[in-house]
Amino acid sequence: GELMPPGGLHSPLGARADALLLQPDYLARAAAWLVVDHKEADEGSAQTAGALAARTAAAEPHNVICATVEAGRSWPRTDAHGQGGADFSLGAARLFERLAAHYGPPIRPLLLPTALSLSAAGARRDSLAVGFELLGGVLRAAGSWPRDDERRLHEELSSGGFGAALRACPVESVGTAQSFLRFASASRDPRRLSWLAATLLAGLQSAAAANETSLSHATALRFVAPLLAELRWRGPQLAEATLSRGSTAAAVTAGARQVREEVGAILALSMQAASPPPPGRPQPAARIGAAAAG
Fold first, then answer.
1. Which of 34, 40, 223, 283 has the smallest number of Cβ neighbours within 10 A?
2. For 128-154, what is the mean pLDDT?
3. What's the angle, vertex CA 82, arms to CA 205 and CA 172, rounded to 5?
4. Is the distance from CB of 112 to CB of 139 less than 8 angstroms?
């Protein structure tokens, strides 16, 4: 028999598959089963770090699909810098990315409500992980959609409580959120991430202006770091905007220890952002240096 379907690797899935995958309740049930997978992985290996990452790929049929989608991928291609969490399943995120890319904008109203519900403030750790996987996949796939549809997705996320959900993210899920942010911003045009950068900077400003706990301030900084890590020399404006915040500069010497540590990470990533490939551009480096000096 043939090793490849007549239409190649990108041939249509078939009318039956389309009918199932375009049903909102079907996709919601699939996401619910992924939440159960996260929970069972934790319960089955409570003493093992990275239990989800160590899960056998062939345990269930959908895990085989996830492993196939993930095969050959080397993301993240940049150093981890201590960012990320074991709960984020790259295979699941890739699966949602491929679904959203295959069906295009019509799948947005089917996936987005489930993603926002799972990642809403107060959600459990396992639900948050699947919500972030869903959001990451849809956001990456939207890069291939028409610009107006991608912009509409960003507007719906902003009005749907995405920023509030990040600010309410529990400590045990911060690493998972960082993995999501890195996945969503990897190899992307910085101009298409401006809405995300604005959301994260608003959260940082809110945490500082409201005199919230040092943990809230540190978490807000940890959410900015993944974008800096992925954008690197393409993100000097984000580095400058983060360092120019008065609270960030003051925290170098006056803040709590956990805030100082995160500011140090931001400074290291900002220096990386100030080192573009040749030919060198001194202007961004000078502006970042001025912002860091206060």
1. 283
2. 92
3. 70
4. no
